Amino acid sequence: MIRESDLDAAVSQNVISAEQASRLREIAQARVRQPHGTNERFSIVNNLSEIFVSIGQVLFFVALFVFVVSYGASAAIAAPIAGIVAGWAMAEFFARWRNMRWPAIVASIAAAACASWLAAVLSGGLDAHNKELVWQVALSAGALSLGLSLLRYRLPFLILPFVCAIGALAGWVLPWPREITMVIAGGAALLAAVMLDLRDRERMTRSSAFAFWLYVAGAPMFLHPVFSSVAVAGQFGTAAAMTGVLVIAALACLFGLLLDRRSPIVASLIYLGVVIGWGAQALSVSPQIQLALVLFILGVGVMLLGVWWKQARAAILGVLPSAFTRRLPLTESR
Known about the structure:
By secondary structure, this protein is mainly α. It has two domains: 50-173, no CATH class; 220-334, no CATH class. It contains 15 helices and no strands. Helix 3 (48-71) runs antiparallel to helix 5 (78-97) and helix 10 runs antiparallel to helix 11. The protein is flat. The two termini are 29 Å apart.
């Protein structure tokens, strides 16, 4: 890629004129400002070097665990403290000084894991009488560490483990059934993702990346309890349960197409597979053929939807009022 310094050097050496350099900059800026097209941006690793560095990080933090196994109680507190300090130091170095995304993510998650580890040890360990309280304290410490990392480094991927930790913690703390908590937490994540998507319709800023991981976290958290409750209420394998699952899956597909996000559809695949299996079982198909039939139908369906995604979205948006669709994320089809 041509850099600004290259253009300046070309002008100073009379290779191109200043006007031509200015026009080249305009062309490059216009290309960068193009909407994302039909593909969701997915980038957590810049290059192979980051994976290489992360291998060393994993070995380092595994060594801390080995110290605890080797030296027992004498290292049970020192090792997680060292892990927290090392994790934050690595995250600061890789995120702020080297712009290495994946090593910074690994370091932030490792620091959060060590914070959970230390909190569990200080609250009595897994041998304590009230193990549930120990898990709650550990999750709180890990979520707090991840939240601080999000505020400090603004790495979109970290929103995924943060939301999962908050959802799991809420499921333990809140007095009502855990399924209701998961629906609320997943719904809140999806709502936040939609708001970020509508704010960045061209998907050119970091808001879109945060929205992507919020969909990844929120879709299964929201849909799993909903699918399960519908299937149980209608009794597994009955026509009512099959209809309920198909309706929810269709709504999830519509939601994904409207916002140009695939995560809600992916989160529905396992339940669509269950419905296909119920149908095959009702037709007295052998168990081996049932599995093959489920995988075949799902595979073909996913491939077709993936290939014709743009056309499917355009068809749906074409029948909706323009006052509604012009607020949705942009794609090539619009």
